[in-house]
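Consider this one:
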Amino acid sequence: MASTSLLPFLRPLPLPRSSSLQRLQRPPQTTLPPPRLCPLIQQRTAAAFANYIGRQTFPGQTTPVSRRRKKAHPSNRPKRHPSPSKILVTPPTPDPAAIESLPYYVHRTPSKQLPIYKLAKRGGNLKQTRLRKINGDVSALRRDLMEAMKLEEKECRINQLTGHILIKVGSVV
């Protein structure tokens, strides 16, 4: 019984067709004739190949020329040291005792910048400014901002959950 199930796999295959045998008996073709292209296409393909291998061809020239790197002009060279006008001086961080005596304090970001961010909501029609990292009395900071920027109550609000102050940008003078 087991030998009969293997018999379909062991049956002989049919003989190959005569056209297949003739193709196998022919000598192999060693090279194909080069395709005939118009001169403009030949020049473009040579230029593309030259660009691929890092060389450049010029009109009227058949052999590619390697590209040479130009030396940078002294005025375009990168400067080693920034000019004194571009060095930003950040104010020193006060000691913790001085921070606790203040009614509020805004901590700086790790890059020593103030945490003030612009927001665009409602497809860009509502522009807001967000002030983050506030320690202490957030409402006192809000009152001082409203006095300094001459804002109304509805233009400057506090997010109680995050402790951020949101200011409408259109209302800033």
User: Anything to note?
Assistant: The chain has a mean pLDDT of 75.
